[in-house]
Amino acid sequence: MTHFIVKPFKFVVQWAHEYGQAHPKMQGIFWIVMSVVFMIVPNLIGRSLTETMGRNVASCISLLIVIPFVFALQKEDARKITSRNLLFMALGGVSAATVFSLFMGNIKINGDPVSIPWFYYIVVVLYNSVLAPLYEEKLCRSLQLRGIQVIAGSLAAILLTSAIFGLAHKGNEMAMSVYAVILACMALYFRIGAIERAVAHGAYNFALDLHVFFLLLPA
Fold it and tell me: What is the rounded CA–CA span in Å between residue 160 and residue 79?
């Protein structure tokens, strides 16, 4: 089964790279189309697994399946990853989360947090801090961003992808749109790759998770 998926995928990737060198706008359209495909696929996988595994576990499994394909699809022209850069990105993410948490206001907790299994917290942290950042950075600020940039320019690419990212995070649209603009600028103007951006993104989510978990502790 895996062979029937991987082999055609390799052919598509090779075609996109070779054809795209001579036809950059067509390659840009291809990146955008593939980003839509990889937005749909995890949802389909997640829905098929939710009934038996629960929504959170199903979401993790769907991204574990999709992330390798998304990263294999597009090769980035990014700066070299170093431990120093990763540390700075993590600190930047935590700092942004700290500032944001000051304006979060009150969080209403429904139910008894003590009754929630510890496994749930592990799954949530894994999804929010590792899987979702890797997936979103490659999807939004690699495939979509580069695709729109080739067609409409850098400014349009930054604004459009950031607006889409903000709308995808209902209830927190403005803050996430601003955060997305910063990450998009990192990608386009500083050659910061998806892995490094995912570290900042994951650190941001992890810090906010800790903030919420702290509020869940019994008084």
Answer: 24
Q: Which domain holds residue 53?
A: 2-216
Query: Amino acid letter at 184?
Result: A
Which amino acid, residue 213? Answer: F
What is the count of structural domains for the chain? 1
Question: pTM of the entire structure?
Answer: 0.89
**Alpha carbons 181 and 196: distance in angstroms, whole number:** 16
Cα dihedral sign for 183, 187, 191, 195? positive
- Express each pLDDT in 47-104 by its tens digit: 999 999 999 999 999 999 999 999 988 888 899 999 999 999 999 999 999 888 776 6
The token pair that represents 202 in the structure block: 């994951």
Summary mean pLDDT of the chain: 88
